[in-house]
Amino acid sequence: MPQNRPRIKNEAQYEALRDKGYSQEKAARIANTPDSGKKGGKAKPYEERTKKELYQQAREIGISGRSKMDKKELIAALRNN
C-alpha cells in the first residue's frame, strides 16, 4: 500500500474503481463507506432528487461553483466528481 494516501478500508474495491478510471479521491471515498462492496444501493437516481438534495450532496463533497448551478449542472458535477 502506498504511504502517501490515507488508509483504504476496502482495498480491492479501491483498486477496481481506479482501474475503471475513477480519481483517487472518489475511489477512496467510495471504498471507505461503511457498506462498501455491498450491492443494492438504495439511493434514488439523481434525476428523481430535488435541486436542494443535489446541492446538499455537492456541498458535502466540496464541489465548487455549486451555488450557480442548475439541477442539470449539479447532476453532471456529481457524476463527474
What can you tell me about this protein's structure?
The protein is mainly alpha-helical. The protein folds into 2 domains: 1-40, no CATH class; 43-81, no CATH class. Helix content is 47%, strand content 0%. It is built from 4 helices and no strands. It has helices spanning 11-19, 24-31, 51-61, 71-80. It is globular. The chain starts with 10 loop residues before the first helix and ends with a helix. The model has no long low-confidence stretch (mean pLDDT 85).
How many helix segments? 4
Helix content: 40-55%
Largest sheet: none
Distance between the termini: 24 Å
User: How many domains, in number, for the residues?
Assistant: 2
Total number of beta strands:
0
Oligomeric state of this protein? single chain
Shape: globular
Mean pLDDT: 85
**Class inferred from helices and paired strands:** mainly alpha
Stretches where pLDDT falls below 50 for ≥5 residues?
none
Encode the helix/strand succession as letters: HHHH
Q: Approximately how much beta-strand content do the residues carry? A: under 5%
Q: Give me the Rg, rounded.
A: 14 Å
Domain Rho termination factor-like N-terminal: 50-78
Protein name: Rho termination factor-like protein
Biased composition (Basic and acidic residues): 19-28
GO biological process, one term: DNA-templated transcription termination
